[in-house]
Amino acid sequence: MSAILELRGVSKQFAKHRALNDVSLAVPRGAFFSLLGPSGCGKTTALRLIAGFETPTSGEVWLNGTRIDHLPPYRRNVNTVFQSYALFPHLDVRGNIEFGLRRGLPKNGARDVAGLVRRVLEQVRLAGKESRMPSELSGGERQRVALARALVLAPDVLLLDEPLSALDPLLRKQVRAELKDLQRRVGVTFLFVTHDQEEALSLSDSIAVINRGTVEQVGTPQEVYCRPRSRFVADFLGAMNWFDQAGVRPEATHISRQRPENGACVRSAVVSRAIFLGSVMHIEVALGVADGAQEDESHTAIVQVAPNGECFQAGDQVHLWWNSSDEVRFPQ
Asked: Which of 3, 100, 249, 264 is a Cys-bridge partner for 26, taking CB atoms 3.0 to 4.6 Å apart?
């Protein structure tokens, strides 16, 4: 699949702070591509460089085969959906969506505007709500208005700067599913910025994990989660148990009172606490330095098991075990 957007050796320096350091990325056409990383890692800076709100200190930005880093924002065929949505409170849904269009169409283009607005309202499933004011909409509906306002201009790439962070947890899950469905229906390339690992894993076709202005790894959600290339990626995308030089995900770590017969990849432990989380039982344990030795409280691990399985409680003597195929190792 060809790339619609590329960053080629892009760096950005702010006074004494280097926000991006020689970043190269290729975003496939029609993909849902996420920039994932902690606050301050440089992901929003990358978005602003693409949108034209910042200029690279060095490197190039290419869109559809054309270099754009020297162009002003209005000459780049990208649109941004901000975290706050930035809707006009005095305009209804139709007025918010029409705002950008009316600035770019001739006066006799009113019929074209009406048709475009009607089409995009259907795409975001807001048909029939075009006369409502932003204050009359739910958080999810306001987000869809912001998406419609950006999509109606037919951008090559839609930039989304943490657009779900203002929603409550239950609504976020609902809107997350709608967002992925919308992207598939309209076929526009989405570049999504988030610090939320679950959002990135559930939405993305590809993820670029960024740390301190550097791309640590690019891959599918399965690749970056199951086969991380650095300890940072392993720890940032969910929990990881570290046994000697190997890492094992909690869901791949097994727990039992009896020592497994195969004797491989086994550690003794003591249950610190067991927490019922509905779909899983979250068990925290303190690992022993060796079988029969006093437990080392500073070395802990987490196990996730089905809630209807064997019950454990604080103080239980247990064994942890895992398959060597589930280990993650890094070069020394």
From this structure: 3
User: Which string of DSSP letters, residue by residue, matches 73-137?
Assistant: GGGSSEEEE-TT----TTS-HHHHHHHHHHHHS-GGGHHHHHHHHHHHHHHTT-TT-TT--GGGS
Which one-letter DSSP state was computed for residue 331? -
Q: Do domains 3-235 and 240-329 have the same CATH topology?
A: no
Task: List the helix and strand counts (H, then E) for the chain.
Answer: 8, 18
Query: How long is the chain?
Result: 332
- Percent of the chain with pLDDT strictly greater than 70: 92
Q: Hey, what are 118's tokens?
A: 């009607």
Using pLDDT thresholds of 50, 70 and 90, give the confidence band for residue 262.
confident
Contacts with 188 (C-beta within 8 Å, 6 or more apart), sequence order: 30, 151, 155, 156, 157, 158
The domain spans of the chain are: 3-235, 240-329
- What are the tens digits of pLDDT across the range 183-215? 998 899 999 999 999 999 999 999 999 999 999
Q: CA 243 to CA 287: how far, in whole Å?
A: 10
| CATH 1.10.600.10 holds for 3-235 | no
pLDDT at residue 293, rounded to an integer? 46
User: Rounded to an integer, what distance in angstroms lies between the CA atom of residue 292 and that of residue 206?
Assistant: 45
Please say whether the beta carbons of 27 and 198 come within 8 A: no
Burial 101-112 (b: 16+ CB within 10 A, else e): beeeeeeeeeee
* CATH hierarchy code of domain 240-329: 2.40.50.140
244: tokens are 């000697």
- Residue 308 DSSP code: T
Q: What is the pTM of this model?
A: 0.87
pLDDT tens digit string along 83-118? 777 888 999 999 998 887 765 554 445 557 788 888
